[in-house]
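Researcher: Please predict.
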Amino acid sequence: MSTAPAALPPTPLADELAGRIARTGPISVAAYMEACLHDPVHGYYRRRNAIGRAGDFITAPEISQAFGELVGLWCAVTWQLMGEPSRIRIVELGPGRGTLMHDALRAVRALPAFRNAIEVQLVETNSVLEALQRATLDNEQVPIRWCSDMDACADGVPAIVVANEFLDTLAITQWVMRDAKWFERCVGIDDGGRLAFVERAPAADFVAPPAIGQRAHDGDVFESRSPAFAALAAKLAAVTPLVAALFVDYGHLAPTLGDTLQAVRAHRYDDPLSAPGEADLTAQVDFAAFTAEVCGRGLVCDGPMTQAEFLGALGIAERASHLMAANPGKAIAIETAIARLMAPGGMGTRFQAVGVRSARLAPLPGFATVDNRAGAP
C-alpha cells in the first residue's frame, strides 16, 4: 500500500521524472509504474537481478523445485491435450533467473516425444537476467531463444504460455473518489520538488464497475489494468490458432476498492515514490477483469483457483514425498518449502492460478477439479 514519500536522496530516475513533470505536468500512475520498471536506462527490470535472497524478493520457483517440475509436467499433459503436435513452443513471460524453466525441463526428460517437440522461448527485457537464464539453461538439449516481446511468438506454431508473477507487474491506473466524482490519481511534484501523489480533474469518460461505484466513499481508490490486460489478451489470441496458457499471481477474484500499489526492496516494503528504478513495483491482480478481457478475444478461461488447490491437483504432495525419500537429509527443508507454497492465508490462498485456452480445447490439467468460473462469451 502506498504512503507518503520518504525523505531519501532522489534516484537518477526520480530526477528525470521530476524534470519531465515540471515540463509537461503530472503523469498517470501507469506511466510512472512503466518508467520505474522499464525505463531503458534506469528501469528496475532492465538492469538488475532482483530475485533470490540477495535480491529483493523470492518467487515460488525459487522456494521449491517442485513448483517448476509440476509446471513442466502440466505442459506435457497440456501438449497431449492439444493432440501432441510435432512442434510445441513453450513461452515463459518474465522467466526470472531461469529456475522455473530449468526445473520444468528436468521434469520432462523421461518424456522423449514431448522433449523432441519442444521449442522454448523466453520473453525477457533484462540483460542481467538473460545472462543468468543462459547460464542456468546452458546444458538443456532443447532449442531456446530469447525475445523482448511476445509478438515474436505469433507465427502459427502451437504454443503453451507460462507466467508466474507476471500480471502483477503490468501497469495500473488509479482513481480516487472525491465528492461523488472520480479523479485520476497521478504522480506530480510537491513544493520541495519531490515526487508526490496528486489528483487530476474528474474524468468524464471513466465509469467504474457498477458494484464499485455503488459502494465507493470519499477517498476510496479503484485500480484498473484494462489497457494492459487488453494488450496481453490480444497477443495471446494472436500467437497461434492453438494456444494454452497458465498464469499464477496474487490478487482478488472480483473488482474491489483499495490502494494495492506497493514497492519491495531488499525483502522489505518501501514507499512507491521513494526510490523509482531501485524497487520492484507491483499491485494486486483483478482476476475477474483479466478473464473478461481474455474471454472477449474468443479464448476460454479455467479458474481461477487457489495456488494450493492447483498444486494439490497436480500432485505436489506426492512429488514432495518422492523428493524427501530421495533426499532424507533435506527432508525438513523440502517439507518447509512445500508448506510455504501451500500455506492457508499465505501463498497457498493469496495466489491464484488461471488457465487460458483456445475454445476447441478441453479444460486444462488441474482445473477440471473445479467448475469453470469464466467461459467463452
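Model: Residues 232 and 294 are 8 Å apart (CA to CA).
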